[in-house]
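Feature request, filed as a ticket because there's no other form

It would be nice if the structure record came with a short human-readable summary line next to the tokens. Right now we just get the raw output. Example of a typical job, pasted below so the devs can see what we mean:
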Amino acid sequence: MLRAMHFTVFDTPGVNTLLRWGSLGFLKLTGWKIEGELPASAHKCVLIAAPHTSNWDLPYTLMTAFVLGLKPYWLGKSSIFKPPFGGVMRWLGGMAVDRSQANNLVASAVQALKAAEGPVQLIVPPEGTRGKTSHWRTGFYYIAAGAEVPILMAYMDYSRKRAGLGPAFVPTGDIEADMVTIKAFYAPIKGKFPQHFDAE
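Raw output as currently delivered:
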């Protein structure tokens, strides 16, 4: 089960500002451009993180979030939350997922989103892993539908060094048709290791 939304670096005055400027500087120096903005209708949403093919995705995602002024939480495997780094990971917005337990992740994520006060973006990688996969998990879709929030299509295109926010998408209930639309958006986007990502 997921814990309730907790205090993170994105809530920390001063540190938040320093990291935002640091992120802007680093991304500019390394040739990355951040695109898009958070729509007014998506201050509380499920944010797709794709493609997810490398450990580098997390720091780049966090830097992008600082630049765009987001308040994100992200799902990660429970092993990265063990001491001595667990506290830091949670401060960075991480929420541990124990894949070995038969828990209802969707239901607890829905509850956490509904209970959250103010803006919050829950980042969910649809592949569920940074390794090679040809199957997208649909948990992100059911979380958004259950919490009655939009899905925000975020991206990180290593081939063009572009990262940011695409359109917001409201689930219609027809998951097959909706997944076709969502995957079509991600089809041209390349991860750090594109051979590990399949948007078909």
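Something like this underneath would help us a lot:
The chain has six helices and seven strands.
The chain has one domain: 9-196.
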